[in-house]
Specification:
mainly alpha, HEAT repeat protein, 180 residues, Leucine-rich Repeat Variant, ARM-like, ARM-type_fold, 2 domains
Length: 180
């Protein structure tokens, strides 16, 4: 793979140029931006979150989901931006990315947003909620969050239900379906 330039603008351009949301060039750029972990990168990610296109907003969310990981300097500043997007965004894939970011951040402050989005009509958003919930339930696990995860374990979409059941097993060790 060709080397990607080191400025924030070069890295963002490289990520936006990759049409695949899971593309190697895109995630290499995001990884390099995470390693920068500086104010310039955070500011650019926040700007992207307000972008005109869903592609820009998804990139901004994905960067914040990496910059805001526990122990990194922007953990406390990423969450309010992501919670705002969770409450105001309509694009399904942006919401999905927000939920994946919440899962990466592992911050129980995301729980109300995740619970709200778990009832979304689109299965991709519910899948993101099923991914995020086990990571944001807190310790001890929040009862409303557990109830939401149990509900997702009965989701009509098989992928959502499977991921939620895995989440329940990870959180509680409960593999018994009789209480659902």
């Amino acid at each position: 793979m060709a080397s990607i330039g080191g400025t924030v603008r070069d890295l963002v351009t490289a990520a936006l140029t990759d049409p695949d949301p899971d593309g190697a060039a895109r995630w290499q750029a995001i990884t390099l931006l995470q390693k920068r972990a500086d104010h310039e990168t955070f500011t650019e990610a926040r700007r992207l979150c307000a972008g005109a296109t869903s592609h820009e907003r998804i990139l901004g969310v994905d960067i914040l989901g990496q910059l805001g990981r526990p122990g990194l300097p922007f953990a406390h500043r990423s969450m309010p931006v992501l919670r705002y997007i969770a409450a105001s965004e309509h694009d399904v894939m942006v919401l999905y990315s927000v939920l994946i970011a919440f899962g990466h951040l592992k911050d129980p402050k995301a729980l109300p947003s995740v619970i709200d989005l778990a009832a979304h009509p689109d299965s991709r958003v519910r899948y993101g909620a099923a991914y995020a919930l086990p990571n944001v339930l807190g310790d001890p696990p929040d009862e409303e969050g557990l109830a939401t995860l149990r509900k997702l374990a009965d989701d009509p979409d098989e992928d959502v239900a499977d991921w939620a059941r895995l989440g329940m097993a990870l959180v509680t060790g409960d593999l018994d379906d009789s209480d659902r």
